Amino acid sequence: MLDVKKIKLDFPILRRQVNGKPLVYLDNAATSQRPKPVLEAIRDFDTQHNANVHRGLHTLSEEASAMYESSRATVAGFIGAPADELVFTRNTTEAINLVAAAWARHNLQPGEEILSTVMEHHSNILPWLQLGVTMKFVDITDEGILDMKDFAKKLTKKTKLVTVGHMSNATGTINPIETIIKLAKKVKARVLIDAAQSVQHLGIDVKQVNCDFLAFSGHKMLGPMGIGAVYLKKERQEEMLPFMTGGGMISEVYLDQPAVWAKGAEKWEAGTPNVSGAIGLAAACEYHNRLGMINIRAHEKELTEYGLKQLSRIKGLRLVGPKDASIRGGVLTFVFDQYHAHDVAQVLDSEGVAVRSGHHCTMPLHQRLGLVSTSRASLYIYNDKSDIDRLIEALDKVRSVLG
Amino acid sequence: MDLYREEILDHYKHPRNFGDLTDFELKDSDRNSSCGDSLEMGVKIKNGKITDVKFTGIGCAISLASASMLTEMLMGKTLVQADKINDQAMLKCLGIPISITRQKCALLGVAIWQKLKLKLK
Predict the structure, then answer these.
(1) How far apart are CA A249 and CA A259, in angstroms?
(2) Which terminus in chain B has less CB density within 10 A, N or C?
(3) Under 8 Å between Cβ of A130 and A100
């Protein structure tokens, strides 16, 4: 189990007051806070080693290059991948767009399909829709669980790519990706896992699950904003064209004949990369490694069970998503009486409790569940039962303010 | 909490001029998709004067209260007077600081009024 009291001390922002109350941060599915080791790693790079990578021969440039490449190895190792299969991006959105533009656009034949689900984040729907190919979406149950019968029905020989979130940012639903990948491989479909909500809460090993692509963001896993990554399986890399072109991603450039692209991950990293971001992200991975992903999941599962229990006791509050915490990550989503989610979030904020409200970039999911907007409290390693209790108390205030 | 001052809560709980718009010929709607707010508003004009105004829809306390207050502002006004009702006038009428993220809630009703104005011209 995690020593949350000790963990909290690592996060300077958690000492902040909001509206005169100690901050309770429950918006982790949107972005997470950063611990001291991450902040210090970034500061160390900025104050001691800042230089452009891969080109200079001077000391700083060599240090920066070594740190950038060692960060790549650390981040790749965090998901069980070798360094040359990990490409840094800005975030999950860019990672998925990269696969859509550099792989899917050139590998789907007329008549071939992409299979996704209605519970996806917009960033795992829109990049595929832009391709103009046939897309199918697997339905969910009213509890927000993937309908595997519908999946089996929609997965056919025409399916070239299955793209699915490991864990829903809106309902916390954990999808059975091992089964999904096995079934997809039977029809020779490739698989992309949107792991924006899962690498940091559940952990994943890309070689064990055998996916083709996996995308995630740094800022949702204690790292900085503006850095993310995508795992590109070696065999898929060979089928891919560049994403963006420019410096860094080439080995030879001519004015009168085609350029020769760089080999390996660099081919998809045009321009000066976010080196300090990559270093911060590597520090974030190490932070998770020290705590242990098994311990993180056990802590968040226990907290999810407690949160679901406490919330279900509130009269007029309806929980959205799976009731069983073994298939649900630390995302507590609800509708409170007739109150609009924005009003709920605003009153909670007046009590120092930060939650999110709206459709959480999952409009098709909300439409499927017949909801316009929901309130969402999402958990992480630095949350404990007292944070849930503060949420419950603050919900009382919603009723007294809004009547 | 300033945002939910008494007058605003009163408009939210008891919206004025709220209801069915079927007998309104001049009407329009707008929505804040990210919030799920969706309002429709209609006006009746006679001899250059707003003789009736009504709105309906779903929204948060701020969008419903501000639309309700807007209908009170519009009711009985001449078109010349009503032409001056814009974002600034609406925010002034609400009388509370509205954060950037809630501006679109506070101004949803007025956005429909702007569309109706164009139809009138």
Answers:
(1) 10
(2) C
(3) yes
Three-state DSSP state, B23? coil
d(CA A104, CA A190): 10
Give buried/exposed letters for A293-312 (b at 16+ CB in 10 A, else e): beebbebbbbbbebbbebbe
Q: What is the pLDDT of residues A61-103, one digit of tens each?
A: 999 999 999 999 999 999 999 999 999 999 999 999 999 999 9
∠ CA A314-A317-A322 to the nearest 5 degrees?
Answer: 105
Contact B60 A342 (CB under 8 A): yes
Distance (Å) from the alpha carbon of A281 to chain B's nearest alpha carbon: 29
Q: Please, are residues A377 and A335 in contact by the beta-carbon 8 Å criterion?
A: no
Identify the CATH class of A4-30+292-402.
alpha beta
pTM: 0.94
CA–CA gap between residue B29 and residue B39 (Å, rounded): 6
Residue A211 bears catalytic tag? no
Sequence spans of domains, chain A = 4-30+292-402, 39-290
A130 vs A369: CA distance, rounded Å? 25
Which of B:45-64 have CB within 8 Å of A? 58-62
Residue of B13, B34, B60 lying closest to A340 (CB–CB):
B60
Instruction: Provide the 3-class DSSP secondary structure of residue A149.
Output: helix
Catalytic residue among A293, A361, A363, A371: A361
Q: Nearest chain B residue to A347 by CA: give it.
A: B1
ipTM of the complex: 0.84
Degrees (nearest 5) of the Cα angle A143, A149, A153? 135
